[in-house]
Amino acid sequence: MKRGIGYSAVGETFDDFLLIKEATKGTTSNGKPFLTLILRDATGEIEAKLWDATTDDEALFIAEQIIRVTGEINQFRGKNQLKILSVRPAQETDGVKLSDFVEKAPVDREYLTEKLTEAIFEMKNPVIQRIVRAFIKKYQEGLLTYPAASKNHHEYASGLAHHIVSMLQVARELSKLYPQVNKDLLYAGIILHDLGKLRELSGVVTTTYTLEGKLLGHIPIMVEEIGLMARELQIEGEEVLILQHLVLSHHGKAEWGSPTPPLVREAELLHLIDLIDAKMNMLNRALDKVIPGEFTDRLFAMDNRAFYKPLFEEK
Amino acid sequence: MKRGIGYSAVGETFDDFLLIKEATKGTTSNGKPFLTLILRDATGEIEAKLWDATTDDEALFIAEQIIRVTGEINQFRGKNQLKILSVRPAQETDGVKLSDFVEKAPVDREYLTEKLTEAIFEMKNPVIQRIVRAFIKKYQEGLLTYPAASKNHHEYASGLAHHIVSMLQVARELSKLYPQVNKDLLYAGIILHDLGKLRELSGVVTTTYTLEGKLLGHIPIMVEEIGLMARELQIEGEEVLILQHLVLSHHGKAEWGSPTPPLVREAELLHLIDLIDAKMNMLNRALDKVIPGEFTDRLFAMDNRAFYKPLFEEK
Amino acid sequence: MKRGIGYSAVGETFDDFLLIKEATKGTTSNGKPFLTLILRDATGEIEAKLWDATTDDEALFIAEQIIRVTGEINQFRGKNQLKILSVRPAQETDGVKLSDFVEKAPVDREYLTEKLTEAIFEMKNPVIQRIVRAFIKKYQEGLLTYPAASKNHHEYASGLAHHIVSMLQVARELSKLYPQVNKDLLYAGIILHDLGKLRELSGVVTTTYTLEGKLLGHIPIMVEEIGLMARELQIEGEEVLILQHLVLSHHGKAEWGSPTPPLVREAELLHLIDLIDAKMNMLNRALDKVIPGEFTDRLFAMDNRAFYKPLFEEK
Amino acid sequence: MKRGIGYSAVGETFDDFLLIKEATKGTTSNGKPFLTLILRDATGEIEAKLWDATTDDEALFIAEQIIRVTGEINQFRGKNQLKILSVRPAQETDGVKLSDFVEKAPVDREYLTEKLTEAIFEMKNPVIQRIVRAFIKKYQEGLLTYPAASKNHHEYASGLAHHIVSMLQVARELSKLYPQVNKDLLYAGIILHDLGKLRELSGVVTTTYTLEGKLLGHIPIMVEEIGLMARELQIEGEEVLILQHLVLSHHGKAEWGSPTPPLVREAELLHLIDLIDAKMNMLNRALDKVIPGEFTDRLFAMDNRAFYKPLFEEK
Amino acid sequence: MKRGIGYSAVGETFDDFLLIKEATKGTTSNGKPFLTLILRDATGEIEAKLWDATTDDEALFIAEQIIRVTGEINQFRGKNQLKILSVRPAQETDGVKLSDFVEKAPVDREYLTEKLTEAIFEMKNPVIQRIVRAFIKKYQEGLLTYPAASKNHHEYASGLAHHIVSMLQVARELSKLYPQVNKDLLYAGIILHDLGKLRELSGVVTTTYTLEGKLLGHIPIMVEEIGLMARELQIEGEEVLILQHLVLSHHGKAEWGSPTPPLVREAELLHLIDLIDAKMNMLNRALDKVIPGEFTDRLFAMDNRAFYKPLFEEK
Amino acid sequence: MKRGIGYSAVGETFDDFLLIKEATKGTTSNGKPFLTLILRDATGEIEAKLWDATTDDEALFIAEQIIRVTGEINQFRGKNQLKILSVRPAQETDGVKLSDFVEKAPVDREYLTEKLTEAIFEMKNPVIQRIVRAFIKKYQEGLLTYPAASKNHHEYASGLAHHIVSMLQVARELSKLYPQVNKDLLYAGIILHDLGKLRELSGVVTTTYTLEGKLLGHIPIMVEEIGLMARELQIEGEEVLILQHLVLSHHGKAEWGSPTPPLVREAELLHLIDLIDAKMNMLNRALDKVIPGEFTDRLFAMDNRAFYKPLFEEK
Q: Are B203 and B215 in contact (CB under 8 A)?
């Protein structure tokens, strides 16, 4: 029974399809060319070396190519490595497709669409609702497929929508407990806050930063987008400015990328809900991998802390 | 109709009972003694000068004394001041009592007790439940009357219980959204996290720091209390250590008073819920005082920010 | 001979027109109303108290009103104060106008216009030139009248244009010394970098922050403006992105308000030239006021340093 | 003549007993298992590889096992490595014991006991004396055998007692020079300040952090212990609180693990004496290893500085 | 019986000589001139106002003038103030001299000279000894009269020598406990480390910063002095460089004024001994003024902490 | 055609002279000795391994030896490496000299001398001119040959003079634009500011830190030198102090090595011009190596940023 590369243990053999995520050429100290491949399926990734690589190999085994590999799982410097015994590019007749090799959100597209629609229906302020609706229409495909980040949290297909929908649920409950909160504004802030990532990041499969991602970043990109959209929809009024402020301030501090800190109640709350959902996503996924009585690996985006799972937790 | 000192406007006359919160002796530059009084009722506080104070006055008009004052509301250096026209100490026959002059939580004692009891009933881990129950029994009176802090957030009578109950509600909803969370542990952390303030702060009416509050602080005090309680109840097991860790780490960072950062999922979540509830309390109370289109005063504990109330908010 | 309020010494009498910059009501400790006025002309400003102010006075003596005052220059807590002996509002027949009471750049409008035009003529890249030209047309009036800031440097009428023109001169010379620099890009960055202040600041006379100035700030405002302008001019190409990057990064660091640091040569140079011109403006104006052998006042925006003028400098 | 592994030079052969401190399994890139061993005796430690390790080897060569090794000292990436030629586990008849392979304090147990006793005899405050005596009794064994830390300073057997006794000597002299110092309090603070390490660290031989060490840390552990001990001894009075404060504040700052900074004279002095003794221990041991005219290695716990030994120092 | 101004209590009358430390002119809001005087004797200082000051008064009552005052001790904004009833300048026949009004070290000049001589006699390295001897000769007068600082610690006449002698005693004892320490070097570092203050500070009575004090600071001044002295004495060898390093690094960190941190054992120890003696001086003097059970005022140079004197301390 | 090692590509053969910059001995895991060589010519550097090195090889192939090598360019861990096929030390008859293998400033010695002379001729203050002239005479050789730093900017032969001359040109232009600047002072500051590096750094070819460089640093060294020079030239007056201040403060902040920040106009400007010239040197050299549309490597001394070369730049 196939379990995927993320669950393979040292000493096991492996015989299945994998996607090449990265391929880098190298030369051994005695002058022979080889390829370092990062291979992945939906469960995880592993490094492999292709020794004595020919020029043909270099042209064949490139990023986004699916391959059929047999090999053994070894360990090198504390990390698993796949020792390749045989390898060939996948063919059309193999019936495998790129999307099978990508980690996905634990909920499906229909669920995400439904939850987004639900949130928009709850809105009462027509201006805010119109702007949000227009963005969902404009970015529908990317919104439902992109990851929320290239690493750290929700870094999987549909991660962005998963993050948004999860934040919306937190927002709904907090709005009940703190009834002064303007729910329309908060919902809109949640849906729009990271949409700039659709232009900041290169795509779903091999997620890197685009040029405008590097030179501007998703926050200024999205502030500009809201201004353009308001002009297109011929909307005026403070709602536009406040929505731009929510997006601009959602990282909370200048050092963290928000040149203006939150100065509106819902902006502060948006920042806190973003923190909670990102942290719970990282924590839950890391703790799922350890048994009670153990610590997780150090989590870089949580100040490099390793977290403990108490013995009295269920396994 | 009496509205309380917190709502008096410059130019108005005032004739009612007030509590002396602080009384300080001074001497004018031409050598005459006077008293500076901070006076308060349940709606707010105001400064007043008692000129030409006699030695009798100094003995009579001291902190925690209730007085009957008539006077006018003036302004001095941008702050309101009460110009005293006549003043006398309250007598038994006046029928006023100290607790009438203290700001109170917007919910009553019964409600708070009920909500705490409810949370304990929901707990399934018997060890955690026993410890929490024992603390609620030990500190029942203080827990229901103390403020959560001497200033900044929930700084009113029953503020501590109000903060706890509000956090418990947030915790209940987040536990549903993130089902991996150990609700018993999170509830217990919330109920216990600030109980050390019952020893750190001097009391309900004139809240100052005690000697052990200054030399140890509420966090180490409470870590020790949990250890003592476990010994008294003859409880062993990791629950005790984990509860101590939750209390110890709930300020999140060494610079903020937690020598160990959160290293357990519920410790991280406790820290975040504490942040949310404290911030929403400060924000809602500050925004309640301004009309749409205005900024609040600068809020010291929110990085000195002034918050804006959008025009499209209801007044 | 009239020298202006900025040059009046303690003990002198004063008899001239002044502009009310700020007027605040107060009440003395014995209950009498008064007004605190900040008065100014083109040479500086001074505080004055108007005792026993009537309701009429309060309505009459408000911000932006010009008044005729006679009084004496006293000193109070180390600062000069004008003791008002008589005061009346200016009348039409007095022939004074608001713009006479405002500090101005040491160069005139024609000079500034000419220098800006010169810079645009030097540009060779048609795309960059078109965008800059369009902004100069759009904001011509504000660009030539606004201060560069509400305080610290170039905080006077036409200060923004003065700052830009001065930076352009530095840029021209540095471009000769470092010929790899793209002069078009650098010039464009200089002209556009602070244009967002026309929306961030309220105006020339009493310069405060607008709502969008507070909630967004001039940097995100201008990044959005460049995007909108490019769309209006139907311009595409990397120039637009790079210009947005220059504006976005010109404060140099996230902590200083640039969420992205300079990542293009001309962006780094723009930041440095901005620093030089702002600092030289502050330093030269502060050192002009002291004689050799003395220190200036502490300059807040120069890390609170007081600067020394060596004895061997000419007075 | 045997000199120990810490003094072996590259190119020499080695034939003696060593203790396995750590053993980690690995697999070569061609799939063969090996063991990486960290071996030590009382003079130092060295890495070794055991190639082609069988399953038996993996069970045999584990942490805390003493082995007999012959091999050669090689160098790999700038660090010495032991090339194993033959190896076997030690047998009972070899007459070697674990404690022979551990670095020890340069003074013996009797000396340390005597000096501690001496300090207690000097105390005049009966309450302080009783508490200290009770702790020395409770933790006698650990106190005399534990290291003061897992690395950096006094990281050897009996290092904790060595650190305490050395600090007591400094304290005695400083108390003479600054006679206002309360010597009883300072002595007690010195003896108790790091006792929490007996629960924070796992033991003498392979020193790691325990679970309560990680989740609480030695400072909160010891604050709690003092509270418990006072209750057991039925002691009340400010001495208990002040001792807890000394322990709590001895790292000097929140960022360094003391949520409350020193607020009592002897607390401040305890912090400074702790600094001096830890730094002199690190400096002296590092400088002993270099000749005049050389720099030491970088010392991580001294801000990564390398220290210079002047030419005019005796070798 | 005369006790000095530092011990006067509110309500007492005062009739004695005082030194004017500072005199500043002011004008009341109704235009009348007055003088604000800071008056002192050897026990402390107090503020006084001289109302209706004539031009003659302004010329007479200036800094460093001794006056005879009768008055009453009042309180103004929480600080004592002397209400002047009569005042006249001291005359020659009064037999008072400036040095009577200055706070002095608690030990006399002979003691300080003796202790310095003793330290030099203990030195064995002839080069180090010669340099130190030459500096003591060059700066004898200033060394024995200057304060160690203009405020914070040892800020009294002969404070510098008192600080040095106290540090020498600590150094002697620590050298015994840590015999690896080069005592000659440490002694020399202690004697020289702050000698640059003789050029940085203006003098004993009214201590301000000189121009070279502000533009260079005592550390670079003294590094240069050692270089010049070595050249004058025709001394070469590493001792000169190491002494310069000790002076340069004695503030411990770049942020604290040492561009190079300590990189020699005795440099590190010099920094620590400097810290201890400065802190003990501040702490002991502050704690002497409070009774057991009280906190001191906040000590600015001790991170603004207020220190507690335990109840079990002798008064 | 020979292009130099800096331009060699992977796969090419190499046959030319190179200079050994560093030689380090190593031992392979199977016990065989080898040498790691860093080889360079005027265009760049490369690493090479000399396997099976004999004792003779170790004596022959040392730093500053020129060798004749044939080999192939390989790649190892992302960096180029030279695989040595044959190697021999250069002989006298080869006609190669060390200076051929060192990177040089892009302008020659005559040009640099002329520009320095020109600057001195422009000076009008005779005191400043005399000091600068004396230093140029004293350090003529080093000034014209040393690098400005051991890495980061102007780190090549004559880099110091190149940096100075480039800064002088910027200073000349800025002095015209800000005519209040004292050009003599600014020029002198520029010429002297880094002269201490002639004692801080070991030399032109293999640039390391000297002992006094490590223990004092170039800034305190140069402050002392100016004092000594003034004494030699029997110059007094504020110019000496101000020049020392310019050197002392030119790093701008205590954290960056200037214990006193700039407090004179020309000191501030010196700091800014130093920044500009260093940054433009780093940026221009890094951007010269990439084509439009690419990013440079991360530049460590520019906060680790990678810079982008826009597509519209000429290649």
A: no
